[in-house]
Amino acid sequence: MTATVTSGDVRTAQVGARPNWSASSILTQVQVLSGRSLRTLVRDPRLVILSLIQPLVLLILFGQVFSSIAKTPGFPQGIGYIDFILPALLVTTALTSGLQSGVAVTTELRNGLIARFRSMPISTGSVLLARSVADVCRSFVELSVMALVAALLFGFAPPGGITGVLGSLAVAAVVCWSLGWVFMAFASWLRQPEILQTIGSLVTFPLMFASKAFVPISGLPDWLQGFATINPLSHAIEAARGMAMGKPDLTVLATAVGGCLLIALVFAPLALRSFRRP
Amino acid sequence: MISISNLTKKFDSVIALDDVSFSVPGGSVLGLLGHNGAGKTTVVNILSTLLKPTSGTATIAGLDVTTEGDKVRRRIGLTGQFATVDDTISGRDNLVLIARLLGASRRQAAQRADDLLTVFDLTDAAKRPVRGYSGGMRRRLDLAACLVGGPEVIFLDEPTTGLDPGARLDVWSLVESLVAQGSTVLLTTQYLEEADRLADLITVLSKGKVVASGTAAELKREIGQLSVNTVLAPGSDTGAALAALRAAGLTPVTAEQPDTIHTRVLSSADITVVVRALDSVGVRVTDVAFSEPSLDDVYLSLTPGRGATTAA
Fold this sequence. Notes:
Chain A is mainly alpha-helical.
């Protein structure tokens, strides 16, 4: 190889090579594709920083402004409001992270990157799977930062200790991964980031607020209590909270994780089907 | 290598492709010429397995694109408006990513990426995010990306649309070196000049139908509007100039201005014949230009007769 890059001979010799690689496994495809998404975040962490702003605002709002709720009747005794609210915020933030998976899919469907992948001999499923894996990793980092900030600035120190907090983070990661499939299914179907954002708020706000996230369920009006009980996020929040409090309830945990996995099981095939459509 | 027969594609009620047939022999370049909306990209999308045809068949190396998609995808490289690279990561990372997806080991992928970056003169920008690339650099990276796996068949969908003239020449010479190594290329373009320079055979699409096909020379002869335009020096004897051109066996016509003469010719080589004829009678020329039929001319001459000529 010489510096004469414009020489036709050099070009022909090198470009003409026909590499004899054997097909990549799905595992490699997922690993390579999720690595790509994560590398983008390391290079440009603005998305991570920006996505931390909303939960931090909520943290200040609820942790400081509404802390008087902890003095209302029906609130568990001997627990600081920040310890009550943070596991819930981890779960609801994980939900918005899942929405970002969907937004990323619409963007890449639009800019042609996915067309390139689809013209290559790789599984279309690994493109979506890689996206969900990358977003769970990103979400886990974001949520850990959030828990750390809460511990340092707002006195977050739940009875469950570090193990308990890691348990809450794991529950949040399951929520992010499973509900991510819901948003990826909508993304592959609608293919418009703007519409997806709107649907995202329509879906996330009721799930967030009509749940056990911010107040104990008995504090909600009757008609909302019904919804909050079947709301899958409620179970996840309860499970995450139980972990942080150092009193994990296996039934609640199984319901929460099982419910999330069921949602993923329904929406993943839908996402794949819409995604394969040209 | 590529063979399409009676291909039709409908999007709801819109007919994007209407009974299109053509074939591209191995190692040659077919230029698919047409305006926006003519159906060029639909053809490429069907051949690259992104779209399913409504009816008709398409094969690549004998493999059916609808039923043997995975084998087809191992043999093709796609580049163009609708298949792009990731602009948030670097050029090198893009090439490594594609090589890894195609089954290369880390080391093989890095080697292939570096080779291609050198060939496409992108070494200096290799580690910068693609977002900051110029249009020409981006297009070169696109080309490199579609070549990572050493495809037998390459689809170039409007490879120079939106590029400045310098970058366009660059891309042309790169495509020529690809062709020299024996790849089969399907090129779509809106520019007759581009098809003329790169393609062995040209197929003209209009509103989803094939309206003409043949070599560039055949198409131009059919349209017959190649001409040499000469501007005579002030005070020249236009009559003598016309007589000299007729004596040389050409058919000159004067244009709006009396000192401009259009002469019908068969190829650009006839410029010298025109100039010599004028020189022999002492007529001085201040400007000579060769004009080719544009894609518009192709349409204007082919589209009106379409209903009558496609009766078969």
